[in-house]
Amino acid sequence: METLFIIGGASYNSIITLDVFPKDIPQTIHNCHFNETVGNTGAGKALTLSKLNFKTVFHSLIGKDSFGEKITEFLQVPNLNFITDFEPKGTERHLNLMNKNGERISIFINPSSDIPLIAYLKFEEYLKDSKYVVVNISNYCRNLLPICKKLKKEIWTDLHDYDGKNKYHQDFIDASDYVFLSSDNLPNYKPFMQRMIENGKNLVVCTHGKKGAIAYTSNKEWIEVPIVETYEMKNTNGAGDSFFSGFIYGFSHDYSIKKCLQFGTITAGLCITSEFITYKNISTELLEEEFKKHYVA
Question: Is pTM, for the whole model, over 0.85?
Answer without folding.
Answer: yes
